[in-house]
Amino acid sequence: MEVYNWQKKDWLSFRYSLRNAEDELLLLAEKTGKISGAVNALPENLKTETLIDIIVSEAIKTSEIEGEYMNRQDVMSSIKNNLGLNAKPEKVKNKKADGIGQLMIDVRNSYKEPLTQEKLFAWHKMLFMGSSDVLTGAWRTHKEPMQVVSGALGKQKVHYEAPPSSRVAKEMKGFIKWFNDTAPGGSNEIKKAAVRSAIAHLYFETIHPFEDGNGRIGRAIAEKALSQGLGRPVLISLSRTIEANKKDYYAALGKAQRSNEITAWITWFIHTVLAAQTESEAQIEFTLKKAKFFDRYKKQLNDRQLKVVKRMLDEGPDGFEGGMNAGKYSSLAKVSKATATRDLQALVETGAFVPFGGGRSTKYKLNVV
Predict the structure, then answer these.
(1) Helix 193-207 and helix 246-256: axis angle, to 10°?
(2) Tens digit of pLDDT for each residue in 288-317?
(3) Which residues lie below 8 Å from residue 310, measured CB to CB, with a gap of 6+?
(4) What is the rounded (10 degree) CA torsion for 113, 118, 123, 127?
(5) pLDDT more than 90, % of the chain
(6) What is the percent of the chain with per-residue pLDDT over 70, rounded to a whole number?
(7) Of 265, 196, 254, 263, nearest to 230 (Cα)?
(8) DSSP characters for 31-90?
(9) What is this structure's pTM?
């Protein structure tokens, strides 16, 4: 029979060594300062654009990890509404996209505040805005085991089983106290933000206190811990990095939930935060390149071309998947293939697009340098 960390006598006596993580922790501190300086040096409009891009990425990817795919425009509208950037709030069609946008902004705005049960319940309600099939704003109560499983019905593999619902209220009371006690200035302060964030995420995911949405709330808690340690809202999309390495994430978490010696988990988590910071550096650099691109080509683009270019730039530093072609252009701009081909050729002639491939399979990428 599988024995999990919460079933062991040393539950909550988390043990770890940072000996093999010291170099990455130093690099993390260095990159944190570098990102802060780079953002502060941006003009105000680009600073806001970078912030929005990173928050939108976090909102979309934290949902994708759980198999939910949000419309980017809905999420962006919600985030802009909640940042107070729209004089007249934009309509958000998808309630869940609106909710995840609200959650992202509230996590940032309330990072200094102590964690409370009421705050966790409020986040959970935001997450499932418009849903009627999930118990929201309350700990789970069902008597059957809370299990993380995979595989077809009848051939399911149990990856993890959380404490029974009857233990959740007590476990969460302990978790909330631990989180606040280990915060900066707390009675049991953990000085390294990434270490505290790693433990907080593991601790919360182990309890798995909600009927659904534990992964998304757990990543919000990890972000809160990082922000408290930095003394400002963190400028990374942790979920984007996790989503790109989802298999490794579940493997590392699953291993950590079988022992209270968690060195391997903390090392993995620090490495992931470092990778997320590297991606943020790339995002800031890309924001500057976008601004230069528009300065150079905007007056040369017609409305159709501008619409397609903006859609491609929305995809961020990794670019538009598969590049642009006449078929995609035709669909996005709602024009005939002949018009699409003419527009694409004009974009190449101005230097805004660079062709690659050849013949009928010719594709185009933005000349963002």
Answers:
(1) 80
(2) 898 899 889 989 999 999 999 988 888 777
(3) none
(4) 180
(5) 73
(6) 99
(7) 196
(8) HHHHHHHHHHTS-HHHHHHHHHHHHHHHHHHHHHTTT----HHHHHHHHHHHTT--SSPP
(9) 0.88
The domain limits of the chain are 5-286, 301-366
Q: Please name the residue that has the structure tokens 């998808």.
A: 94
14 — alpha (psi -120 to 50), left (phi > 0) or beta?
beta
Contact assessment for residue 90 and residue 75, using Cβ atoms and an 8 Å cutoff:
no
| Distance, CA of 3 to CA of 11 (rounded, Å) | 12
Mean pLDDT along residues 217-224: 97
Homologous superfamily of 5-286: Fido-like domain (1.10.3290.10)
- Those residues with Cβ within 8 angstroms of residue 80's Cβ, 6 or more apart along the chain or in another chain: 52, 86, 90
Greater confidence (340 vs 72) lies with: 340
CATH 3.40.50.2300 assigned to domain 301-366? The reply is: no
115-151 b/e (C-beta count within 10 Å ≥ 16 → b): beeebbebbbbbbbbeeeeeebeebbeeeeebebeee
Which pLDDT score is estimated for 1?
Answer: 65
26: Cα within 13 Å, side-chain hemisphere: 5
Q: Residue 245: CB partners within 8 Å, gap ≥ 6?
A: 272
Instruction: Give the position of tokens 């006690």.
Output: 181
